[in-house]
Design goal:
alpha/beta, three-stranded antiparallel sheet, TIM Barrel, 22% strand
Length: 489
């Protein structure tokens, strides 16, 4: 059975505290949503502002395959703005719980039904498809809710949606609720919130109960604890419920997730299912060994399915099989005794609380293999001048291939100035700093600073680290260590 997906990232997702998308950002997300096979895109709420309407109009002009909707209250003014934006349909939201009808709207049940029916008629008279969403449906009287839906169907509504507005459903109660409405002759949609962390589970139960459409947001963003996660729902349907299907291009899920995270500024937790950075990362020796022999041992799906790649993390839980695999990736072949010693050295380092980077691994392996690489670049001295009225300026003395070089640079801060003084030299050309992270290892003003960076040259990426009481020295040393690694390879 086909399950349709309505994505509300541009409306409900934008209600995430601190998120405000520009028209161009909304357009870029909408393009991607259409590309990956979303059936319905809720582009925004036309009543919100002139800027919001301009954003919606830009989307509706594109002739996407997806149906474009605007959120609307059951008011003529809201609907007129939807017509102005030339949307295909409206997500007509009508409160149905006594808490909303009586306390918020101060209406009777009969007045609410009349309001809903009149709004549907007005939409249909203006050529709009209508999805009627019952707000707070999960706390509504089921018989009254059924009356609202039945009247709506008689007035020509195209789809109905059951909204768990405050996320109080459980998988069992979700199944029962949607099973109650499964005999309607229009599609039934599910809109869940994640207040108790059950949005995806409730959405999947709704499908089993008879829902044929789900509302989601990319990365599960949204107000409070967020909405139903698009990626978790779609991949779960694909992998766990073979009797159902969607139109989604699953191998583009990760790219879509990263795009939305970047444009909204909403951080993706590392352990988030499907799209988190740790979702396909393995450190445990037992797991790494099993994965190398057969990925199905410790992965319920291949990372390639969702546009990801697998990675083995270096740490104290890593076993020799995973470590040997990582060593081969960086071009080192070792015998069993050498592998065992490298593994022991890594565990010793990790036991001290140190994150083991590729550079650390290279150094440890070099020591065990008795390979003495002479670094091409060495830092001799760095001096900083900075103040309230002085642009931070750095002078550095470094040795490159036995040649002593002096150089200077300016920057927004002392670290930026020091790095700029170095990377302006020819040997650092085509090397990009793609990640910079700082941690304070100890407390107090004399704390040791741990700087971890990632550098990229063409398709090669390495990480490096510098630990000093001085953040500038730590940053410069980390940068030069990474460059030495890149140049050495």
């Amino acid at each position: 059975m086909k399950i349709n997906v309505l994505d509300t990232t541009l409306r409900d997702g934008e209600q995430t505290p601190g998120v405000s998308l520009t028209s161009n950002e909304k357009f870029r997300i909408a393009v991607k949503l259409d590309e990956i096979g979303i059936d319905y895109i809720e582009a925004g709420s036309a009543i919100t502002s002139e800027g919001e309407r301009d954003s919606i109009k830009e989307i509706t002009r594109q002739g996407f395959n997806a149906e474009i909707l605007s959120f609307s209250r059951p008011l003529k003014g809201d609907i007129d703005y939807c017509v102005e934006c030339d949307v295909d349909a409206v997500n007509l939201v009508v409160p149905t719980s006594d808490l909303h009808i009586k306390d918020k709207l101060n209406m009777s049940h009969e007045e609410l039904i009349d309001l809903s029916n009149n709004a549907i008629d007005y939409c249909k008279d203006h050529g709009l498809s209508v999805e009627l969403s019952a707000e707070d449906a999960s706390r509504s009287d089921k018989d009254f809710l059924k009356s609202v839906y039945s009247d709506a169907i008689e007035h020509g509504v195209d789809r109905i949606c059951v909204c768990d507005t405050v996320g109080i459903l459980t998988p069992d109660s979700s199944f029962e609720l949607f099973n109650y409405f499964k005999d309607f002759n229009v599609p039934v949609a599910c809109h869940c919130h994640n207040d108790f962390g059950l949005a995806v589970a409730n959405t999947l139960s709704a499908i089993k109960g008879g829902a044929t459409e789900i509302h989601t947001t990319i990365n599960g963003i949204g107000e409070r604890a967020g909405n139903t996660s698009f990626e978790e729902s779609v991949v779960s349907i694909y992998r766990l419920f073979p009797q159902f299907s969607t139109n989604i291009k699953i191998d583009e899920i990760y790219d879509t997730s990263k795009l939305v995270a970047r444009l909204t500024g909403v951080y993706i937790q590392p352990n988030k299912a499907i799209v988190g950075e740790n979702a396909f990362a393995h450190e445990s020796g037992i797991h790494s060994d099993g994965i190398i022999k057969n990925s199905a041992t410790y992965e319920p799906m291949t990372p390639e399915l969702v546009g990801r790649t697998r990675k083995f993390v270096i740490g104290k839980h890593m076993g020799t099989h995973g470590l040997n695999n990582r060593l081969k990736e960086i071009g080192l072949n070792v015998n069993d005794n050498q592998l065992k010693q490298i593994c022991e050295d890594i565990k010793e380092l990790a036991d001290k609380g140190k994150t083991v980077t590729d550079v650390d691994l290279q150094v440890i392996a070099d020591n065990v293999l008795e390979i003495n690489h002479e670094d091409r670049i060495k830092l001799d001295e760095v001096t900083i001048v900075s103040g309230n009225k002085v642009m931070p300026t750095a002078s550095v003395k470094i040795t490159i291939d036995e040649e002593e070089i002096l150089n200077a640079g300016v920057g927004l801060g002392p670290v930026d100035a020091a790095i700029n003084a170095i990377k302006s030299l020819d040997v650092f050309k085509d090397i990009d700093l793609i990640e910079y992270h700082v941690d304070s290892i100890t407390g107090g003003t004399d704390a040791f600073i741990d700087v971890i960076i990632k550098l990229q040259k063409e398709d090669k990426v390495v990480s490096a680290r510098g630990t000093e009481a001085d953040i500038i020295n730590a940053s410069v040393k980390a940068y030069i260590a990474g460059v030495n690694r890149l140049l050495g390879d």
